[in-house]
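dude i think i finally got it to work??
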Amino acid sequence: MAAGFFFWRGKLWYGVLFILLTSLTDMLDGATARAGNMGSAFGGILDHVSDRYGEFFILLGVGISGYVHPGWAIFALFGMLIASYTRAAAESIGGLPTCEVGIMGRLEKFILIIAGALLERYLPGYHLLAYALILVGLTSVVTSIQRLRFAKRELKNRQT
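look at this
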């Protein structure tokens, strides 16, 4: 939420800082739970849901910041959500042990948003943050398609 707030207020550096802090704590909480054998099914669900909330608030802040047309933030958000949902559906409905495939993961998408924000800050007028969001949206949709194809292939192999 803090990253989204700072993006909304036009404080790109602070927005980037809070994305980095969010990413760091997201990596550490899962690693800590696994290392201490404290992980649980509910903890995994809570982690995934809180990740979606974080993505929403970050992209909401970017979308209403005035740096980009809000439609590009919505496109990036849709892409990120559909890629995540495709994986979740393949694993829960399809029963696949994992469907973490595709050209772009969550961390790489955040790196694109961070790079776009920093470039927007130091090279204004080129709309580089908007291009970063477009790239996030496109790669997310491609990732979703790759996950669907992977799930179809894996489920077909189970039947034979």
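The two ends are 47 Å apart (CA to CA).
im so relieved honestly
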